[in-house]
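Supplementary Methods. Inverse-folding protocol.

Structures were first reduced to a discrete structure-token string of length 847. This string, shown here, constituted the complete conditioning input.
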């Protein structure tokens, strides 16, 4: 039930676990995480609610996950770890500025020790600044704020005392930034906060006429939610674990029952944790090996730094043990209840140290197991499903290095010794796992295997000189990862543009491999929750654009399949909807796939229907054609929904990312998206006046770039937490997560990348031209895409654009990258976005 030692990406997201499969066809992680990120998740694949950041003990991060989790990847409807198929409380959390919440927040701080209190008080100080400045800002203003221009020099290249990467330009190049003053790392500059509040006040005024439409959309989306629901229980030891949701409550109730019993035990009620908080994200929830304790991690700010707590499940009381460091939220038990492992972040939000905590001791005495000094690499770890080994890794975007630890040798009073499998080699990646007692399996791109292959070695001789192919490399299959059990192995990957699962006997994998056949060609499939190492049953999730998420058990011996649950979607008749696969020709002739879904009775080709086009195209993350009830309001109004599988993603394998749209080919992402829009217009599916587009995080970069390049193609755009200030952000190593992404985007401090990155950076290429209507959103505590990026972008757009179309900025002053943690509040946020879009398309009040 936990997320294992993953790092972060700024424009990347914490990828969703298997239970997300089918939750949203615009939420790429839904299938991505299921198929290639984690072996299994804490939440059942048929659960009604999952978190992007929670998974099980045997979590082995895949290569694509590492890229996403270290950067700015985002969930692709903007709230990637919130599902609209999940119910939640019908209240919005009160702002921290209320005196009641201030008292509660302070009280919590005083209970958790001096260091945590300091952190909490610092956060409270931000809240007090927000409250103080709010007193002088009207609830609504009828004009957008005019941002003051304060030209500031920004240096690109060598700067004394700063890490500017390899071979920075010397002397450095200089660019001027009129809105650099909006950067506020501490989030408490009264002038900056006031500007954000004025932006929010103007947005509220400009959209006040949509209040009824927002309410209708919210109620419509809620009507497709089974508000009281329960995940499919999964076995873990002598218990069946699950979580459930209750109508009127915002968060999960995590529970269990002993095998053979109907008596429920509450493991953790997140609704209780959330009281008095404006944000509540439980990332890890990990039962101890004997199931008497549970470890969990909590972020109450949205900044993605977590404290770790331990709960006695017999008494319901918290232990004195608390890990008050700034952790990534991951926590894994050792072979028994004596120790846990976790990772911490540096000041730039990079996961860089792995620790061992001995229960019953102060975290100040914890043992530093591993530290990664190279700022382009991040530290991670996972525990094998066999429970015998802990793997500790150091990974960059394209290079990895792993150590292993026999957990049976760990002593609480001694520092364990890690054994290196294979020292890092530039651009060579590998991911190990434990197999057949005396062997390791390895997924790697060694030997020019661009789409990765599976190798093996003995534990006694783990270096690459002794690796052997498990079966021959097949370039048509992109291997994402393995799920290893005692008697069988599941390989996760892609073929033909879709996710697949391959099964093989553990004793003779090379000669027993077969792919699981699935009912629809266009589908999403991935692992569910599989905690037991000794089993013959594999749980998986399945969905398509017209099939809600299903949870299945597959018996590898009998080949029998059992449907355990299809996620209930009230008021949904699948017979009314159809999906298709389309292709657009990019300027270089590459065929770019698109997935389309529509109401059969409301769409007729040639009638130029309103159309919503979504894109992402970064980090090798795939937008897969899964089900998403959030878009039923669009479909039911006759809007066609299309996913553009542009280069930069991983839909067509690793080469779709590199060399497809990485480094000096990144512009292919943008020209692919434009080609998709042009194809849809040319084939009369839509026309520019009816075409809406959206992208989030790194997808916001896509939106910003195409608006500069071809603003005439689109009527309205939504850019969520958009990564638009590419040059400034990627040149500054003090900004969280930048150094780790030089290997994804390039480093503008280098002459090799400066001009090319400048050529597409949205903020730097705003022109004096007409732009479509635009809604931009962000979060004050976002560590991946800082709030000042969308704020600066909007200010400059208003200065340059030559039309009267609205450009609105909405900054949530209580959340980070992943928007509201309260799922009902999340629905309201999505209703806000959709209402703006429908208004600009002339569809308000029409259904």
């Amino acid at each position: 039930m936990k997320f294992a030692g993953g790092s972060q990406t700024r424009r990347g997201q914490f990828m969703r676990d298997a239970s997300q499969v089918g939750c949203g066809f615009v939420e790429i992680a839904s299938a991505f995480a299921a198929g290639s990120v984690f072996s299994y998740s804490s939440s059942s694949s048929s659960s009604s609610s999952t978190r992007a950041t929670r998974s099980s003990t045997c979590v082995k991060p895949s290569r694509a996950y590492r890229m996403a989790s270290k950067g700015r990847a985002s969930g692709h409807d903007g709230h990637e770890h919130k599902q609209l198929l999940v119910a939640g409380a019908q209240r919005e959390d009160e702002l921290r500025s209320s005196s009641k919440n201030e008292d509660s927040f302070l009280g919590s701080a005083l209970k958790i020790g001096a260091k945590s209190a300091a952190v909490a008080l610092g956060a409270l100080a931000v809240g007090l600044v927000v409250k103080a400045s709010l007193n002088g800002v009207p609830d609504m203003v009828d004009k957008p704020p005019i941002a003051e221009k304060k030209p500031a020099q920004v240096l690109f290249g060598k700067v004394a005392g700063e890490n500017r990467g390899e071979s920075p330009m010397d002397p450095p190049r200089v660019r001027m930034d009129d809105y650099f003053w909006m950067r506020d790392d501490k989030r408490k500059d009264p002038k900056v906060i006031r500007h954000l509040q004025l932006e929010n006040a103007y947005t509220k005024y400009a959209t006040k006429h949509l209040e009824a439409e927002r309410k209708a959309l919210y109620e419509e989306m809620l009507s497709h939610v089974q508000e009281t629901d329960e995940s499919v229980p999964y076995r873990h030891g002598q218990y069946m674990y699950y979580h459930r949701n209750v109508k009127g409550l915002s968060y999960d109730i995590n529970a269990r029952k002993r095998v053979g019993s109907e008596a429920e035990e509450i493991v953790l009620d997140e609704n209780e944790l959330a009281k008095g908080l404006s944000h509540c994200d439980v990332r890890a929830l990990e039962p101890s090996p004997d199931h008497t304790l549970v470890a969990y991690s909590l972020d109450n700010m949205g900044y993605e730094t977590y404290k770790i707590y331990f709960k006695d499940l017999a008494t319901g009381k918290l232990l004195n043990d608390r890990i008050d460091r700034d952790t990534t939220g991951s926590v894994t038990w050792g072979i028994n209840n004596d120790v846990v492992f976790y990772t911490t972040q540096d000041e730039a939000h990079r996961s860089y140290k792995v620790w061992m905590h001995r229960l019953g001791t102060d975290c100040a005495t914890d043992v530093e197991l591993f530290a990664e000094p190279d700022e382009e690499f991040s530290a991670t770890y996972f525990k094998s499903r066999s429970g015998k080994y802990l793997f500790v890794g150091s990974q960059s975007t394209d290079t990895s290095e792993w150590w292993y630890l026999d957990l049976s040798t760990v002593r609480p009073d001694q520092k364990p010794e890690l054994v290196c499998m294979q020292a890092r080699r530039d651009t060579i990646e590998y991911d190990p796992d434990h197999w057949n007692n005396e062997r390791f399996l390895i997924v790697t791109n060694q030997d020019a295997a661009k789409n990765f292959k599976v190798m093996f070695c003995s534990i006694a001789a783990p270096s690459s000189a002794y690796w052997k192919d498990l079966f021959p490399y097949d370039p048509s299959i992109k291997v994402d990862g393995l799920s290893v059990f005692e008697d069988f192995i599941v390989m996760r990957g892609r073929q033909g543009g879709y996710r697949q699962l391959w099964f093989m006997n553990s004793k003779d994998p090379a000669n027993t491999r077969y792919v699981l056949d699935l009912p629809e060609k266009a589908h999403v499939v991935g692992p569910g929750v599989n905690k037991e190492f000794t089993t013959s049953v594999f749980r998986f999730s399945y969905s398509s654009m017209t099939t809600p998420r299903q949870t299945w058990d597959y018996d590898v011996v009998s080949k029998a399949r059992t449907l355990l649950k299809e996620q209930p979607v009230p008021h949904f008749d699948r017979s009314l909807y159809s999906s298709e696969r389309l292709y657009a020709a990019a300027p270089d002739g590459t065929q770019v796939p698109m997935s389309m879904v529509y109401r059969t009775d409301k769409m007729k080709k040639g009638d130029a229907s309103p159309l919503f086009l979504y894109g992402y195209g970064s980090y090798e993350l795939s937008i897969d054609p899964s089900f998403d009830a959030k878009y039923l309001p669009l479909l039911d109004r006759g809007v066609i929904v299309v996913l553009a599988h542009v280069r930069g993603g991983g839909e067509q394998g690793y080469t779709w990312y590199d060399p497809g749209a990485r480094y000096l080919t990144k512009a292919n992402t943008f020209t692919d998206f434009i080609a998709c829009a042009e194809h849809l217009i040319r084939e009369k599916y839509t026309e520019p006046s009816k075409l809406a587009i959206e992208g989030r995080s790194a997808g916001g970069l896509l939106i910003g770039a195409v608006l500069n390049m071809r603003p005439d193609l689109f009527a309205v755009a939504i850019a969520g937490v958009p990564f638009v200030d590419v040059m400034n952000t990627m040149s500054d190593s003090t900004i969280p997560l930048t150094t780790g992404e030089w290997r994804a985007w390039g480093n503008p401090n280098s002459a090799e990348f400066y001009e090319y990155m400048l050529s597409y950076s949205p903020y730097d290429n705003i022109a004096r031209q007409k732009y479509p209507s635009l809604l931009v959103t962000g979060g004050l505590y976002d560590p991946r895409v800082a709030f000042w990026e969308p704020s600066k972008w909007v200010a400059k757009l208003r200065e340059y654009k030559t039309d009267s179309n609205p450009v609105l900025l909405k900054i949530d002053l209580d959340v980070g990258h992943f928007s509201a943690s309260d799922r009902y509040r999340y629905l309201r946020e999505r209703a806000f976005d959709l209402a703006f879009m429908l208004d600009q398309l002339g569809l308000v009040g029409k259904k």
